[in-house]
Amino acid sequence: MHKKRNKTKEENDILIKKIKSEKITNFRGFIFSQKFNINEVINYKYEKLNFSEVIFEKEADFSDYEFEEDVIFNKVEFKENAKFKNASFIGNCEFYKIKFNKKFINEKVFERVKFKGQNLIINKVENLPRLDGIRFSGCSKFILRNVEYNKGEYLYGKINYRIARNQSKDIGDYENIGYYYYKERTYGGKIIKESDYPTYNEYICAKFFDKLSKYTIGYGEKPWNILIITILIISIFAFLYMFAGIQTINSESIGIDISNLNNYSLESILDMYIDLWYFSMVTFSTVGYGDMIVSGLFGKILVSLEVFFGVTMGATWASVVIKRMIR
What we know:
This is Transporter. The protein is α/β, with parallel strands linked by helices.
């Protein structure tokens, strides 16, 4: 009976009575067709509560309940609203592959919740409501992973990942702070609105620098992005130098004459590109050995731009690395 959908009130009452009499703690596969109030059902001692693959077809009310031991919500579906108002968690709690009703994503589902357990794990949850009602103890670890939000819900993503970051900072969980900060900034960037700024130019600048920060340094959390962009810049400028005219200290010219492209073999072009990639690299790093120099206005403009990019990227790399080291 416990797996039957659309139970009548009488059938649901029989199921609740059975749960109480047998003191069931493993609810795997149960389907509750009527409103579920945990205070009216579980009033006995237990070692662990397991709500795996449970479907709540009506409202699920966990308000004012004290979870004295560990509780697992695994692959649970809330067809209607779920309430945890004033609930207390003494043990660990895990939400894995939970599906909340999207209509209630902005409801105060976790209002004044007290979490005193060691671990709160939320992973792969759909339509996760705001968590800003949870009060954590100073020793509780909060893990928030693989929770995504769609358009119109980005604010909730920003709020929830900020909560996770703040709690990680409070307990010294530095391994996860970077991930939470990146997700918080990602959702924060998606809710930048023109109405939040006095002028359109300020809005465009904020949007531009947010995108620049995201894709160049990953908001300071992805330093390898800088290395990839550096290699890309060096490679692009090496290609452009082929048409700018570079001279060696032996007065040998390195470059391609566009009017005589048929005179160059693939091997000679590749050798030329390798030499110019070396020149581009020392220019980008501002070392400038002096064994090659540019000739012509176009070449000087390219060198100036690459030096500017090199200095900027070098300073950015240093700041990102130092930030991560002293965290």
